[in-house]
Write a structure and sequence with these properties.
single chain; mainly beta; 340 residues; 12% helix; six-stranded antiparallel barrel; 5 helices
Length: 340
């Protein structure tokens, strides 16, 4: 592979920003490991009580897929650039109010040596709050990490079918034919569904009706990318076709987080990564890569093994816009740019 091709492949790697705490920022307040920082699964003791360190705030750990590995991106605020990340375990914590919160322990490794450890909470952790460790699971952690990485639509979202019909995502079936932007009608190969707490960085994002010329309100996972054609390059992307993560469009009014309770997420998988239409907006389907692959049932994963490179190397990934180009009024700029 020549240098240009290598550079092009690097550009196509999807990244994900993960809110994490360093291990020393989540320590044992009382119990067997009293005074110790959060450790590996083999070191954890049930019923130990943890607390966030004073002033601790989540840091941004940005990871990208590199063949079968997860590596730290140069955009990351913690860790070593190109360091490898492995998922050690899922922990379950209980608050004094009886609420359970799951978190993932992520380890940065160099060869066989662990050089850093992070906690990725799957719900918001409060300061000055005691959390009791009630569960440690090493068997299901990669799947939980994969689910958090999967882009998803919420219950009630209308998807445009090959016939032009608008069908609620919860009513779709494997084999149904959906209209795609690049490849016309395509059959759904797998539909994933999971329920998560709608809190913090994992809360879904609402795009109000009309904000991006959408026919109805659209609610999606925060890292979901929308495909927008600009008749004029309003945001300075250097191209007319752009992919934008919805979390980068949040303005608190027409695009905002919906926090509270739980949210039902649905993932749609095709033979290739596709751009489909949800409430009239062009949005991506599930991208299978080393981050998300563990979310698939074994039989689906095996069936797609030969087409996995097709998922990773879809040309649209080249169109993703960096957050630095998106100001507070980015949604309005994109709406105008797409309608002129």
């Amino acid at each position: 592979m020549n240098a240009m091709a290598q550079t092009r492949r690097k550009k196509l790697r999807a990244t994900q920003a993960l809110p994490v705490y360093r291990a020393e920022e989540f320590f044992v307040l009382s119990g067997v490991n009293s005074g110790d920082a959060l450790g590996f699964a083999s070191e954890l003791v049930l019923d130990d009580i943890y607390e966030l360190a004073k002033g601790a705030k989540p840091s941004k750990l940005v990871v990208a897929s590199d063949h079968d590995e997860l590596r730290i991106s140069q955009l990351s605020k913690v860790g070593t650039v190109n360091g490898s990340i492995i998922v050690d375990c899922t922990i379950t914590l209980m608050s004094p109010q009886g609420q359970t919160i799951e978190g993932l322990i992520l380890v940065e490794v160099e060869g066989d040596e662990a050089i850093d450890l992070f906690l990725m909470p799957l719900a918001h952790l409060e300061p000055k709050t005691e959390y009791t460790l009630v569960g440690v699971d090493t068997s299901d952690a990669r799947r939980r990490f994969a689910e958090a990485a999967c882009v998803a639509f919420t219950r009630g979202t209308h998807i445009t079918m090959a016939s032009g019909a608008q069908v609620g995502i919860e009513d779709l079936k494997v084999g149904d034919r959906v209209l795609t932007r690049d490849d016309g009608p395509q059959e759904i190969r797998w539909i994933g569904q999971n329920t998560r707490r709608a809190v913090g960085d994992f809360a879904p994002v609402l795009i109000r009706k009309g904000t991006l010329n959408n026919e109805n309100d659209l609610i999606v996972s925060p890292d979901h990318r929308l495909f927008i054609y600009q008749r004029d390059d309003e945001i300075g992307a250097g191209r007319s076709e752009v992919l934008v993560k919805v979390r980068h469009l949040i303005n608190g009014s027409t695009v905002k987080r919906l926090e509270g309770g739980f949210v039902d997420y649905f993932q749609l998988l095709f033979d290739r990564h596709q751009i489909i239409y949800a409430e009239g907006i062009a949005a991506e389907s599930l991208l299978v890569d080393p981050r998300t692959r563990a979310a698939l049932p074994q039989e689906v994963d095996e069936a797609l093994a030969k087409t996995l490179p097709g998922h990773e190397d879809r040309l649209h990934l080249e169109y993703e816009v960096s957050e630095s180009l998106l100001s507070a009024d980015a949604a309005e700029k994109l709406r105008r740019a797409s309608t002129r």
